[in-house]
Amino acid sequence: MNKKELINSGKVKSVFTTDDDDKVIIEFRDDMTAGDGERKEVMNKKGAYNAVISAKIFKVLEENGVETQFIDLPEPDVMLARKLDMIPIEVIVRNIATGSLIRKYPIADGTRLEPPIVQMDFKADEYHDPMLNDSIIKALGIATQEEIDTLTEKALKINEVLKEFFADAGIILVDYKVEFGKDKDGNIILGDEISPDSCRLWDSETLDMLDKELFRKGKDDEVMEAYVEVYNRIIPDDEKVI
Ligand SMILES: Nc1ncnc2c1ncn2[C@@H]1O[C@H](COP(=O)(O)OP(=O)(O)O)[C@@H](O)[C@H]1O
Ligand SMILES: [Mg+2]
Q1: What are the residue ranges spanned by the domains of the chain?
Q2: I need a labelling partner for 56 at 20 to 30 A (CA). Which of 113, 193, 239, 240 fits?
Q3: pLDDT confidence band for 3 (50 / 70 / 90)
Q4: Given this model, what pLDDT does residue 37 score?
């Protein structure tokens, strides 16, 4: 499948149209950003690690009945995906309290959240991704109540599948963010990526961070080692392409 026109260049990925109107090519770049894109560095092969990890996770989700954008990974850093009309909501699921949750609310770092928290933030860097609620989402015309309920259900289903998937690799899924979009028939499908950029992942034994939080904390020299560790643990040897 050939790239045609660049339709969206975000902070870490570039999206291209293809010969097929229903498919896009998503190139995962080596950029790493924090603070709504205010700090940016280039990390060697980061795009490929995130693309391969995302592809693996999308395949696992598909096997468990969650529809995703994933079609193929023709190159380690290039994903062929279903073209979606993205919903500007970051759906966040939290199994353990940390990060912005403990900064904004009186809850101790590391508190187990049962049931998990589902949070929706407005995906808009210029507004610093403010938290939404159902009435705000409807007032902004972003989604209907039925769609909000679908997003919540899907995010929780993804959580159940991925908590177990990561646990099998000795990793705690602390929290994560997903983005959904609509296909041409209006079906809500999981898009974007699920990677150490968009998840908080802790080693089950040591509780060491294995995700982008290291970069947020300025530990730039440890970031890629963590991403490679996640890759090595979840990608079987016969599926390794990097
Ligand atoms: N399947 C898809 N079809 C169309 N656009 C997509 C798809 N998956 C992700 N996108 C969009 O691609 C853009 C680029 O990704 P990214 O670099 O992560 O951007 P951002 O900086 O906005 O988070 C994002 O706007 C994202 O919503
Ligand atoms: Mg993004």
Answers
A1: 6-82, 85-219
A2: 113
A3: very high
A4: 80
Which atom of ligand 1 lies nearest, measured to the CA of 9? Answer: 14
The superfamily CATH assigns to domain 85-219 is ATP-grasp fold, B domain (3.30.470.20)
Ligand 1, CB within 6 Å, residue ranges: 8, 10-13, 15, 24, 69, 81-84, 86, 179, 181, 191-192
Long-range contacts of 182-188 (CB under 8 A, 24+ apart): 182/84, 182/85, 182/87, 183/22, 183/82, 183/83, 183/84, 183/85, 184/22, 187/67, 188/87, 188/147, 188/150, 188/151, 188/154
- Prediction pTM value: 0.98
Architecture of domain 6-82: 2-Layer Sandwich (3.30)
CA of 8 to the centre of ligand 1 (A): 7
Beta partners for residue 121, in sequence order: 90, 131
Report which protein residue has its CA nearest ligand 1's atom 20. Answer: 10
Atom of ligand 1 nearest to the CA of 88: 27
Which ligand 1 atom is nearest residue 12's CA? Answer: 17
Confidence of residue 35 (pLDDT cuts 50, 70, 90): confident
109-119, pLDDT tens digit by residue? 999 999 999 99
